[in-house]
Amino acid sequence: MNESTAFDEVMEEGERRGKLKRSHHLLLLLGQQRFGEPDTATTAEIQAIQDMKRLERMSIAILIVNSWSALLATP
Length: 75
Fold this sequence. Notes:
By secondary structure, the protein is mainly α. The chain contains 4 helices and no strands.
């Protein structure tokens, strides 16, 4: 039986944060191309999202919606 060490937990948390940061960056980049530059509040709201599944749904929704507010309404 393998027990998770504190090191493993730190590494997993770092990996999770890295994935979130990349997802935020990509969503903002794609959104900027589609909707224009996001305002500060929109950027902050996207960067505050910690749910990877929601970020994935938003990445798909960006192909359909027509504004930052519609994208942020994606559950």
